[in-house]
Specification:
single chain, about 210 residues, mainly beta, 5-stranded antiparallel sheet, 2 helices, about 5% helix, about 35% strand, globular, disordered C terminus
């Protein structure tokens, strides 16, 4: 109990009973020129795409480095025309982006936990994120739902095609997004950052 805990008193005694803080982490995304796909494991302090890409866009009516960003549903962020139909960053989603020139983007905020961030993949095509902080083989990462996967593509056009035993992607890489075509809707959870297990957790949607 402090003697002076409500008002200022000369030579009084007071103190801090509790202190809350939020740790800020960063991720640096290296985005190439032209079309590519990106994702982030950081939930930004200011999550709106306008704020996330503030250093890479110009005022409405002018062309900055970011030409356009698309999500898997076809919604767009088109800064030159003042269009933002995507809104905030969704850490479970990957995005297509077109840049005028290659640039690095620093995303600052709260690092999401892969184990508590389920990704819902619809039947058919979607764009997913990679939520782990280290690269890992795509066939290992997606092995729990391999029976539901028709094909996976990265931003360079390389594919993971389980039916034919083709894996030209190799590792899933932090900062990259991936196009996935599934036979069924499925929910997937990435393994924890600290481990490289042989299986993960998934739940067929609707069950």
């Amino acid at each position: 109990q402090f003697a002076n805990d409500a008002y200022f008193t000369p030579n009084g005694t007071s103190g801090i009973l509790s202190l809350n803080y939020t740790s800020i982490q960063t991720q640096i995304l290296s985005i190439p020129v032209g079309w590519s796909m990106f994702s982030t494991y950081i939930y930004p302090v200011m999550p709106n795409l306008i704020d996330v890409f503030a250093t890479m866009i110009a005022p409405v009516g002018q062309q900055g480095n970011v030409i356009i960003i698309k999500d898997y549903s076809g919604n767009v962020f088109w800064p030159a025309f003042g269009l933002n139909l995507i809104g905030n960053v969704d850490n479970t989603q990957g995005y297509q982006i077109k840049l005028t020139f290659a640039e690095q983007l620093t995303v600052s905020g709260t690092q999401v936990d892969p184990l508590t961030t389920p990704i819902n993949l619809p039947a058919g095509w979607s764009l997913i994120s990679y939520l782990r902080t280290t690269a890992a083989p795509v066939d290992l990462m997606l092995s729990p739902i391999v029976v539901d996967i028709e094909i996976v593509k990265n931003g360079n056009g390389m594919v993971y095609w389980p039916l034919w035993g083709v894996n030209a992607i190799g590792n899933m890489v932090p900062g990259e997004g991936y196009q996935v075509k599934t036979f069924n809707a499925v929910q997937y959870i990435y393994p924890a950052n600290a481990t490289l297990p042989t299986k993960s957790v998934f739940t067929p949607l609707g069950e």
